Amino acid sequence: MLVITVSSERLLFRTLSEEDATERYLGWFNDPEVNRFFKTRFIPPTLESCRKFVSVIEHGPCNHLLSISDKETLEHLGNIKPGCINTNHQSGQLSLFIGEKAQ
Predict the structure, then answer these.
(1) CA distances from 93 to 7, 9, 25, 62 (A)
(2) CATH of the domain at 22
(3) CA 55 to CA 36: how far, in whole Å?
(4) Is residue 14 part of a domain?
(5) What total of structural domains would you count in the chain?
(6) What pTM, to 2 d.p., does this model score?
């Protein structure tokens, strides 16, 4: 498993782990305002399914799932997922969401 940690002036990006899939995290995926463009809006996720998703990404070869956190407070604000990475074609996709609406 590749562990990634990157920071900017205000934000910290680090590899997401199953422990990051909390009730608060689950709440983002069940919030209609946050999930309106997610596939998960059609089948509401559970804490178990969130943890399984994180685990699959964590142990897979071509996707990475990073938390976006406030650098000072370490509050988890959302996720960024570089995925479908194809090294032969030097291409991929980038998914981003902010779950914490107050930010």
Answers:
(1) 21, 25, 22, 10
(2) 3.40.630.30
(3) 24
(4) yes
(5) 1
(6) 0.84
Please identify which residue in the block is written with the tokens 């969401």: 97
In a domain, 103, yes or no: no
Q: Write out pLDDT tens, residues 56-92.
A: 998 888 899 999 999 999 999 999 999 988 889 999 9
- Is 34:97 a contact under the CB 8 Å cutoff? yes
Among candidate residues 29, 90, 24, 18, the one with its CA nearest the CA of residue 52: 18
Domain around 24? 5-98
Q: Is residue 74 part of a domain?
A: yes
Residue showing tokens 């650098």: 71
- pLDDT tens per residue across span 40-61: 889 989 999 999 999 999 888 8
Strand order in the sheet with 5-7: 5-7, 11-15, 66-70, 76-86, 91-98
